[in-house]
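Researcher: Quick test of sequence recovery. Tokens follow.
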């Protein structure tokens, strides 16, 4: 009888600790999932410098990102590659867009939409840590509607633009371009 009671106590002890172990394991995987979709400003700059979507795909795929579409560039038009990081709630996906050239990777631009606007203060802080100076701010309109508002920051090599979307309060983005390419695009009213 005592051995049966002892075994029963051991099983209860194991079951209680197993629940704790499963809870900790679940929490770990949720944390890893959340961190994998977060991309730092430095990571975005490195990704932007890669020549083709295949290089970026290798980096993002290892973090759980999925390639959604690729439109190849032509001599007169940039290509676009799109990745998505699917969160537990489908409405909270994070997105990365690579705009890339057939001839010159310095024309590449990258755009990152984190899964929530709560990331904006962190992005702003990282831009300031890179000692990027505020260049300008404005808005892009489609007819009478404001499509997005932006604030552009510059350092000696890059332009970063933080975008907010008035009609989508939880949607923000950061775009990173080579400084010379950005100036040409803006002068031609292409941004």
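Model:
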């Amino acid at each position: 009888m005592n051995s049966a009671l002892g075994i029963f106590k051991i099983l209860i002890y194991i079951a209680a600790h197993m629940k704790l172990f499963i809870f900790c394991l679940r929490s770990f995987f949720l944390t890893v999932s959340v961190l994998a979709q977060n991309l730092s400003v430095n990571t975005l700059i490195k990704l932007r410098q890669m020549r083709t979507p295949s290089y970026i795909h290798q980096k993002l795929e290892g973090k759980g990102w999925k390639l959604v579409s690729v439109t190849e560039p032509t001599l007169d038009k940039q290509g676009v590659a799109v990745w998505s990081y699917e969160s537990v709630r489908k409405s909270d996906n994070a997105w990365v867009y690579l705009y890339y050239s057939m001839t010159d990777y310095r024309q590449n631009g990258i755009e990152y939409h984190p899964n929530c606007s709560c990331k904006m203060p962190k992005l702003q802080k990282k831009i300031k840590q890179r000692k990027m100076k505020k260049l300008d701010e404005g808005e892009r309109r489609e007819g009478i509607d404001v499509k997005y508002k932006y604030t552009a920051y510059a350092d000696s090599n890059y332009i970063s633009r933080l975008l907010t979307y008035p009609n989508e309060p939880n949607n923000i983005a950061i775009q990173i371009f080579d400084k010379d390419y950005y100036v040409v695009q803006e002068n031609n009213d292409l941004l």
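The CA atoms of residues 54 and 81 lie 10 Å apart.
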